[in-house]
Task: structure prediction
Amino acid sequence: QQQVKQSPQSLIVQKGGISIINCAYENTAFDYFPWYQQFPGKGPALLIAIRPDVSEKKEGRFTISFNKSAKQFSLHIMDSQPGDSATYFCAASDQHFTGNQFYFGTGTSLTVIP
Amino acid sequence: AAGVIQSPRHLIKEKRETATLKCYPIPRHDTVYWYQQGPGQDPQFLISFYEKMQSDKGSIPDRFSAQQFSDYHSELNMSSLELGDSALYFCASSAYTYEQYFGPGTRLTVT
Result:
């Protein structure tokens, strides 16, 4: 059972455009929502993360929007660049106990066309 | 900045053999996590350790075991390997924050 649902599965965006990836969850105990970027054959790299006490967090070209009532969160990549082409995973975790696992979405393969 | 170190980076084993994967967390990180990632799939949590004690357990087969040592490094021991165990195995570490930092992974191929 997938605890975090992610869409779309793949995304093609023109250079300079906005990439938007969406995730949804059901477990209201989740209180930490990171996004990871992964290149082929490499480990996932932490991009940006949010806690449910804020509705938006921005770091450079990356923004997380969080809707607690809808149990949804999304990643926006502004001014998308070819170097952003990678697989993006959202995740969620209940951090009330140290060492609790991350539940990952199924991933979105992003291709940015020059 | 120092990152998570995993060894070996690549490993080829035959069915029914045993494999040991090692993970060295970022200095001063006290929590280690193991994930398995199949081709085109999301990382699946196996097990985690905090201060050398098992913290959380996911879909880790009974054929696998893991531990965290006094220097905080961790080892994942895999026995009676099956073809389906072929995957990328990632270790991640964290400190007092929630952030998990992933290593480069070990690619295990079982033939």
Notes: Chain A touches chain B through 24 residues (CB under 8 Å). The mean pLDDT of chain A is 95. The longest strand of chain A covers residues 19-25.
